[in-house]
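Sample entry copied in:
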Amino acid sequence: MTAFNKTTTAQRRTRTALVFPGQGSQKAGMLAELAQQFPQITETFAEASTGLDFDLWQIAQSGERLDQTEYTQPVLLTASIALWRLWLDLGGVAPVALAGHSLGEYSALVAGGALSLIDGVRLVHLRGQLMQQAVPQGTGSMAAVLGLTDEQVEALCAKVSTDTGEIVDPANYNAPGQVVIAGQSSAVQGVVALAKEAGGKVINLPVSVPSHCRLMQPAAESLAEVLTATAIKMPNIPVIQNANALIEADLDQVKAALISQLYRPVRWTQTSKTLETLGVSQLVECGPGNVLTNLAKRMTTPMVSYPIDTRSRMDDALTHIAVAEGKLA
């Protein structure tokens, strides 16, 4: 797999990347303040809703069904694209690269022009349905393991899987000392117990599906059929993909990475290193909240990151990035 090198001269000079969060960043009332001042926000939600049979803005504001993954995913993608469009409209710098955490990879591909917004929300709505169908409610779970190395968590998952015959895998390599695991609930709890014995801390996550583990392979197979029929092109801004933390140069590999990310771990720690190799020194978190901004602080080489989901945060990011890029004295 080869890295994508076709960046423009302007992009090569840029030291900024935009990153898009995944599930867990949603909250009722998201982007309401910005929507009062900038019609682009609700216009984007209205556009996205034409591709579905429900009102995305109503769900985003009321919180109704927002905890159901098939609705969470299109709402979050739309929120991210609304912020992406507003960032550019307000004069935000064009990034050298894009990256998204889990679901956020789809947001990054829409922002990069690889997918239309309508196709993007349709895909992630289906993705959420397929994920929920792959594992019966209550039989799978996820937990964050803190304070152990990647290798320690991998060894614990392998031990429990071997001893029990059940599935539990590393699901998200979020930052050094922070790995999320996913799988069958009893196996996840087996790793939780061993992780505590090894001196780690554990947070059980309130999720409806165990993402990024082998239990999602049936969902990936079904999603592959739909992706084959979906109009996807190479992004006009490089997108770092979750499954391998690389920028693919081949459209077939872009699609393959989208399929495999359902049952393979999100390599966010490695993604951060890939951004470093591109000369990125600051991030803009393009979505509700500041989950990725907090993760940026935990990397071996911390990066400055700016969330932009409120007016004050947007103004702060616009100013600091413009100064860092030499556009303001």
